[in-house]
Amino acid sequence: MVGPEPPYHAPVFVLGHHEREPLTLSDTTFTFVTGGIHEALDLAREAAGGGRIDIAGGARTVNQYLAAGLIDEIRVHVTPVIMGEGTRLFEGVRGVRLEQVAARGSDLVSHITYRVLRD
Q1: How many CB atoms lie under 10 A from the CB of residue 103?
Q2: 3-class SS at 61?
Q3: Which of 3, 65, 81, 89 has a Cα at 20 to 30 A from 97?
Q4: What are the pLDDT digits (tens) for 24-36?
């Protein structure tokens, strides 16, 4: 899962299908949520106390939050490595437009930030 020193240093809510006890590593507690994206977001909002919430995950997770209208900004990190077909980002997401607000890159990765606009 993660090494002994996870990079988050904040509560993490992990979407899953099986109940599991929370796991604490260093100053990060991973809480496993089986009730879906809304439950995970509610827990994250409570933990953040009005602060910023980051949603990390694969395309399926991001697509669910985008389709539900729950993301304001998206950061995409593109590397020149092809690992297979995977799941398409933005698949099944309708009524969303993206406005690029930042981009930077190197030989190894491009970082692109978009503001999510609703139709």
Answers
A1: 11
A2: helix
A3: 81
A4: 988 899 999 999 9
